[in-house]
Write a structure and sequence with these properties.
- It is a single chain.
- The chain is an alpha/beta fold and about 350 residues long.
- It has a single domain (about 1-200, about 240-270, about 310-320), classed as 3-Layer(aba) Sandwich (Rossmann fold).
- About 40% of the residues lie in helices and about 15% in strands.
- It has helices spanning about 10-20, 35-45, 65-70, 90-115, 155, 160-180, 220-225, 245-255, 275-285, 300-305, 310-320, 325-340, and strands at about 1-5, 25-30, 50-55, 75-80, 120-125, 145, 190-195, 200, 235-240, 265, 270, 310.
- The strands form 3 sheets. Strands 3-2-1-4-5-7-10 form a 7-stranded parallel beta sheet, with helices on both faces. The chain has a 3-stranded mixed beta sheet with strand order 8-9-11. It has a two-stranded parallel sheet with strand order 6-12.
- Helix 1 (about 10-20) packs across helix 8 (about 245-255).
- It is globular.
- Bound molecules: NADPH dihydro-nicotinamide-adenine-dinucleotide phosphate.
Length: about 350
């Protein structure tokens, strides 16, 4: 029996695929083109347990039906990770809201139509974004936990790219929980959602270091390439989790019964540009005197002043310690410098 993972080329998904293969799962991944499939297969050394299929656009009607029909009787686990993650767009509806919702709708209906009798577990990569009120994220009186829901309406989602992305994750996740309830007599799978905050950490493969990098890692990449007089951006701040922990949570969610029906809020700590700069300046002599220093010791890591969260339930359920910001930043920066032959 196999695991199906959508969006296998993604930053997070590649780590999940690596951990699945390390644990001897047979993996079927979807990617958007043959070129991307060829590259990814080569990166995973043509591992015989990895098969890739083309799903060009998760937004299109019945996007996953053909793949699920092809592997009828063979898929036991489904991981849905693919969803657009960026903020710049001229058309929030088309670029963010529709693919997120349709992608979730399409994959769940493909299971219902072609694999209802074999799929036992579905894990959806949702987001902290589905849990927070984005207008109050920096408000110390705003509290959220695993039970919280982003209150954004469809109309409010169209205000800007950040509202649209965060709402896209809420609408997609909500659809999934409603689907489970509506079809409970026709399916046998249980659902878990993984809700990470900003995900940092190295790419699965050094050659995936690009400029710009994927949306979350670009926060660190931008600082590695800053100059001494670049201003510290006081608005770039939030909470962080390492990509290896995110992948691990997906694997546990597939297998552990205690995670059935849960929304796992993955947060290790707060961060901002100052706390990342402190780590880079302390740990990378090659960058000393070349990048911004700011005011060491005054960052969010020591001094988070925004929203309060409680993810103690998730930590207790997962039973592993999340990697700290220092480890995540160090490994991300080492990989960038190694790739650029600056170490
Ligand atoms: P990436 O941009 O690296 O990965 C996104 C994946 O989705 C890629 O495989 C991409 O394909 C695929 N995809 C996007 N749109 C479509 C589409 N219309 N049709 C088919 N495939 C599509 O992002 P991440 O790995 O960072 O994100 C993965 C998931 O994690 C997303 O659901 C995101 O919302 C969620 N998440 C990410 C966080 C983060 O900080 N990174 C935080 C919280 C949640 P391609 O490679 O071809 O572009």
């Amino acid at each position: 029996m196999s695991v199906f993972i959508s969006g296998a080329t993604g930053f997070i998904a590649q780590h999940i695929v690596a951990q699945l293969l390390e644990n001897d799962f047979k993996v079927i991944g979807s990617v958007r083109s043959q070129e991307k499939a060829d590259k990814l297969l080569k990166q995973f050394n043509n591992n015989e347990n990895l098969t890739l299929e083309i799903v060009k656009d998760i937004s299109l009607p019945n996007a996953f039906h053909e793949v699920f029909a092809k592997y009828k009787g063979k898929i036991k686990y489904v991981l849905h990770t693919s969803s657009p993650f960026f903020f710049d767009s001229d058309d929030y509806e088309k670029d963010l809201l529709i693919p997120a919702l349709n992608g979730t709708e399409n994959i769940l209906n493909a299971i219902l139509d072609h694999a209802a009798d074999t799929v036992e577990r579905v894990v959806i990569t949702s987001s902290e974004a589905a849990m927070i009120d984005i207008t109050r994220y920096f408000d110390p009186t705003f509290f959220y936990d695993e039970n919280s829901w982003n209150p954004t309406s469809h109309e409010e989602a169209l205000i800007n790219g950040v509202h649209a992305y965060t709402a896209s994750k809420k609408f997609a996740e909500k659809y999934a929980w409603d689907f489970i309830e509506e079809h409970k007599n026709q399916i046998k799978f249980a659902l878990t959602t993984v809700n990470p905050c900003n995900v940092f950490g190295p790419q699965q493969f050094d050659e995936n270091v690009t400029s710009p990098m994927n949306t979350s890692c670009e926060i660190i990449n931008k600082l590695v390439h800053s100059s001494v007089d670049t201003k510290v951006d006081r608005t770039t701040m939030g909470k962080f989790i390492d990509v290896r922990d995110v992948a691990k949570a997906h694997l546990l969610a597939l297998q552990n019964d205690n995670l059935i029906g849960e929304r796992l809020l993955l947060i290790s700590s707060g961060f901002d540009e100052q706390s990342i700069l402190d780590i880079i300046n302390d740990d990378f002599p090659a960058l000393k005197g070349k990048i911004r220093v700011g005011n060491p010791g005054t960052g969010a890591l020591q001094n988070w002043k925004g929203s309060i969260h409680d993810n103690s339930k998730t930590r207790k359920l997962l039973r592993f310690e999340f990697l700290p910001l220092k480890k995540s930043v160090d490994d991300t920066v080492s990989q960038i410098l190694r790739h650029e032959e600056k170490l």
